[in-house]
Structures are given as C-alpha cells and as structure tokens.
C-alpha cells in the first residue's frame, strides 16, 4: 500500500480556447475511483495552477490518473491518462498532452 499525494495541477494550454477550463481528475485504483474535486471542477486558464495538496489516495499496485475538462453542452473532454506505481516512491510530474492541450500534474508517492 502506498499513498498518492497530489500537489499541483498546472495548465500550460487549456482545452477551451476562449474561456477557462473546468478541469477535474479521476483516479482509478484497484478498489476505488475518486473524483477530484468530488463535485464540480477547478476553474483554470492558461499559465494558472491549482493547489491540490489536500488530496490523497491510498492504492496498491498501479493507479491511473485521468484528466478531464468538463463541458456543459457536449460531452466532457478526456485530456489523457498517466499511471503511477506504488513501488516507485518519490515526487514527479505527469504530462497530459492532447492536440493543443497541455497540462502538468505534480505528485508524490509515499509509503
Ligand atoms: Ca472543452
Ligand atoms: Ca470546459
């Protein structure tokens, strides 16, 4: 068992061109799939960051981190996925890059 600690989500280029993105994260583990934030989304635009330090998830094996932009009329945009491993402890950065969209998520895996 390890703990995934989210630290910061940084938007280099948003998905929604003219407005802010409504970003949210879903973490898929072997036994749960929490959404962060639980309801709604983080309002984020180009060169802005969101502090995620209050969010931790316990997991065993691998955890998949999926990033979405919530849209109100059409379906939410899936912006990519990354996997972290409970045996690889330490801090790191995950890239979410799709077409012109570019996000960076800072995280740490601790025991
Ligand atoms: Ca969108
Ligand atoms: Ca949106």
Structure description:
Helices cover 0% and strands 61% of the residues. The chain is mainly beta and 111 residues long. The strands form 2 sheets. Strands 1, 5, 6, 9 and 10 form a 5-stranded antiparallel sheet that branches. Strands 2, 3, 4, 7 and 8 form a 5-stranded antiparallel sheet that branches. The termini are close together. The model has no long low-confidence stretch (mean pLDDT 96). Bound molecules: calcium ion (CA) (2 copies). One calcium ion (CA) binds at residues 16, 21-22, 69-71.
Class of secondary structure makeup: mainly beta
Regarding CATH, which class? Mainly Beta
Ions, cofactors, ligands: which are bound? calcium ion
Helix content: under 10%
General shape: globular
Domain tally: 1
For the report, how would you describe the main beta sheet? 5 strands, antiparallel
Tally of individual helices: 0
Q: Which residue ranges are poorly predicted, with pLDDT under 50 across at least 5 consecutive positions?
A: none
Q: What is the beta-strand fraction?
A: over 45%
Average pLDDT score: 96
Distance between the termini: 7 Å
Query: C-alpha Rg, in Å?
Result: 13 Å
Supply the key terms.
binds calcium ion; globular; 61% strand; 10 strands; five-stranded antiparallel sheet; mainly beta; 111 residues; Immunoglobulin-like; 0% helix
Quick structural overview:
The protein is mostly beta strands and about 110 residues long. It has one domain: Sandwich (Immunoglobulin-like), CATH 2.60.40.150. The chain is built from no helices and ten strands.
How is this fold's topology laid out?
Blueprint: E1 2-13, E2 21-28, E3 35-36, E4 42-44, E5 49-51, E6 56-59, E7 62-69, E8 77-85, E9 90-98, E10 101-110
Antiparallel strand pairs: 1-5, 1-6, 1-10, 2-3, 2-4, 2-7, 7-8, 9-10
Bound molecules: calcium ion (2 copies).
The site of one calcium ion has 6 residues, from strand 2.
């Amino acid at each position: 068992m390890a703990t995934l600690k989210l630290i910061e989500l940084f938007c280099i280029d948003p998905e929604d061109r003219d407005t802010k993105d409504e970003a949210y994260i879903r973490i898929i583990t072997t036994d749960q799939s929490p959404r962060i934030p639980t309801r709604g989304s983080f309002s984020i635009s180009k060169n802005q960051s969101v502090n995620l330090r209050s969010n931790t998830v316990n997991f065993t094996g691998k955890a998949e981190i999926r990033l979405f932009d919530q849209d109100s009329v059409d379906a939410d945009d899936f912006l990519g996925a990354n996997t972290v491993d409970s045996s690889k402890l330490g801090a790191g950065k995950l890239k979410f890059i799709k077409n012109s969209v570019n996000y960076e998520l800072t995280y740490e895996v601790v025991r």
